Amino acid sequence: MKLDIRYSNHPEDSKYYDTEKLRRNYLIDNVFEADEISLTYSHQDRMIAGGAMPVNTELKLGSTKELGTDYFLERREMGIINVGGKGTVVLDGKEYALDFKDGLYIGMGTKEIAFRSENSASPAKFYINSSPAHKTYPTVYITKDKANHRPLGSGENMNKRVVNQYIHPAVCESCSLQMGMTELDKCNSWNTMPAHTHERRMEVYFYFELEDDNVVFHMMGQPQETRHIIMHNEQAVISPSWSIHCGTATSNYTFIWGMCGENQTYDDMDNINNLDLR
Fold it and tell me: In 31-40, which positions are buried (b, 16+ CB within 10 angstroms) versus exposed (e)?
């Protein structure tokens, strides 16, 4: 297992970052590596994000010195959404088969976690978010059909999309982790507009279903000091609580969002008027 560490950054420092430093601090460029669990530990609310991609072997999730625990979920909870071929997640001996866009909430206290692919020619890609937990909630298997669906936006504003809430109070219980998947309709490219911040929660975005040479322009920074990071298919980005997080792209796309922090009120956000952005 690989674990990259990212420290918190003050907004007054971040506004002086050049492109390379922005990417080094916030971009997670290698989410999936064959036969590897690749994770990034952010000191922004101590969120862990990354991927497990078993191809030729089963992958087992262990603990690390950075967590200081006997096993990974001793004091954490986890969310998983599969963005690859069919695969299986094994939790303390119990198997959960995940097809494309199936999800899983895993409660604190689960000791043994393993990942398998059904077919090495089309391996599973398990995208992972994990945050600190204070209580054990039941593990829940969540297909896309069982998610809470919220159609938003319009074609006129190029942001017609469906927000599929997987780990959300309307679907299952969790301590602080929320996780879901937003799908944009064809010919739509803007997400999360108007832009907003939520000082109560940080967020991680994972962009995928970008075909060919299409890219996402992910917007971040304080509302009057905005920056952007150009992202490719199957990359993730860390969004601190003080930063806006919205984006546009050269085609439609899908992204997975994960949040943790003070509350679980999805609509608790501080919207920014478009004309106030700088």
Answer: bbeeebbbbb
Give Cα 188 to chain centroid, integer Å: 21
Cβ-count burial 85-112 (b if 16+ within 10 Å, e if not) = bbbbbebeeeebebeebbbbbbbbbbee
3-state secondary structure of 6: strand
How far is CA 180 from each of CA 93, 168, 236, 248, rounded to the nearest angstrom? 26, 8, 14, 19
The end-to-end CA distance of the chain, in Å, is 40
pLDDT digits (tens, 9 = 90+) for 3-31: 999 999 899 999 999 999 999 999 999 99
Q: So what CATH class is 2-276?
A: mainly beta
User: Would you give the distance in Å from CA 262 to the centre of its chain?
Assistant: 18
Complete DSSP assignment for 85-147: S-EEEEETTEEEEE-TT-EEEE-TT---EEEEES-TTS---EEEEEEE-SS----EEE-GGGS
- Report the candidate in 85, 87, 133 with the shortest Cα–Cα distance to residue 113: 87
Whats the size of the chain, residue-wise?
Answer: 278
- Residue listed under structure tokens 């064809």: 186
Q: Is the pTM of this model over 0.90?
A: yes
Looking at residue 137, its amino acid is: Y
